[in-house]
Amino acid sequence: MTPVDGPGVVKRSEEVEGRLVEAGTATTMRPLLGESDGAPNFAMRLFSMGEGGGMPRHTNRVEHEQYVIRGRARVGIGDEVHEVSAGQVLYIPAAVPHFYEVVDAPFEFLCVVPNAEDRIEIVE
Amino acid sequence: MTPVDGPGVVKRSEEVEGRLVEAGTATTMRPLLGESDGAPNFAMRLFSMGEGGGMPRHTNRVEHEQYVIRGRARVGIGDEVHEVSAGQVLYIPAAVPHFYEVVDAPFEFLCVVPNAEDRIEIVE
User: Fold this and answer.
1) Is residue A69 one of the residues assigned to a domain?
2) Shortest CB distance from A89 goes to which of B11, B61, B65?
3) Contact A124/A95 with Cβ under 8 angstroms?
4) How many domains does chain B have?
């Protein structure tokens, strides 16, 4: 492949502004890499959940590939519940109900999603 | 979206078998999540580089979204060189020459790529 001169992107995740996740509790999301960096296919986000934090059981329209960076949480995927900590990876297919309950805060994980329309729907 | 029963995947990254990266030095790659887990769009891999390790200047046919987990390295992207450590994220567009030189080992980073044909070409 002919090498091209293209801009790479290097940044510290702490410098990326976070926003509160409305559907969650004590949960912020930092959009680390995505379309605004020129990335054509998928986006990497960093979720941070504080004491007592989490997300209720919900579905997304897109799949998640996740890597746990620090802390500990109970994560429900479909009918199974897992306790996860640093170094664990999770794959959550589109439309599969899932939830998060923080055990040791802060619970931080990367979540990669395709560049596609998403919607969070809470599942009772 | 109608919730579906689908298998999620949860595993420890240390339990995923690594393989030596032939084009690199003291570099192993663990395929954490990808098509074999049912993931349709992209794959998450964990690279670990030991003392004196790295990858020579090369191109790929696919873009990279990366997150540094531990250690320190000099990373060249195009004409720029960055020293990176834990918490830093990198976007390397397809076809842009890049290299890695370990400064503090082990240097570990996640690298997410689309599910598409790739080829490593070394660039002088």
Assistant:
1) yes
2) B11
3) no
4) 1
